[in-house]
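Example record for the data management plan.
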Amino acid sequence: MFKIYISDSVYKNVVRAEEQKNFSECSDLYKMLKRQPVQLLTASDNARFKSHPEEVLKDPSALYILDMTPVEAQTIQASYGVMCQSCQQPDVSPLIDVNDIFISNVDERLDRGWDSVLDSVERLPSNTLLLTDRYLFAFRHPNAGDGLANIREILNELLPLRFQGDEYHVTVVFDDKSKHASYSFDEIATKLNRIKKQLGRAYPIMMEVLGVTPDCAIYNKLHPRLILSNYYLVEAGHKLAAFNADKGTARQTLIPMALFTESSLKGSSTPPLEAINQTVTTLRDFSDSLSKLTDHSTYLYAVNGKRMERCEGIRNRLIRNK
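Corresponding structural encoding:
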């Protein structure tokens, strides 16, 4: 869940400068500090992050405002896919949504397809992706929406060019009973693993695949078609298999969103962050319940192309880290 880690002295300075203002006139950082969980950092905490920057992945969806230079903060952000800011120049504007909306239509070109839709979010740091669409593999013909081809395009746009935090995590969730009759679960898992290799990233990628059935406890909670990462989501009104190259496969709305909007920071609307939290909570509860589950036939599970008899727990750090 989103949390702000900030140096104690910086927090006090921000609050002191802003607390006498009308709330509507306060900075976006101040509004976040007042509406989101905050962890204050001591000098020794800051020193620890400086000497062991990999520790930011213990809370991979947080905002870190640390007592270090902008160059040092940017290096951590680029290396570990977390939002890391220097206390000298804190800038939370990348977390404020720019309100992009795309409308696709069947067989009509939409600029560059996924390349255009994802422009506003692909610049955000990222260490994990979660794609959930029950009907992702319902079709195999490109004009109707090829799930594998669309995942290839999505991953190619969103996977960072650089990542040093051990493995980058990708999880794909779909309805195994609604897949095209010519597909097997094993084939989908194998081909997704092959796609990750073909993208040629220089870091290891964990490809996790969960095929749920209508009998699975979380089935009815997975209706939204979403791409989730640690600082953004993309919602598809109809399906994630949205394009055949740059042409739409359905009449639908595609909305990329950062964590907050200006109105949500004021308290007058719901932040997009809440949609991420709802889906993460659903999958986290399912993951936590697996150790007590007696019937594992309600889902299928694979990691890196290898089918597993059962899932001991979802590995994606978006789900695993609490």
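Summary line stored alongside the record: The chain has a mean pLDDT of 94.
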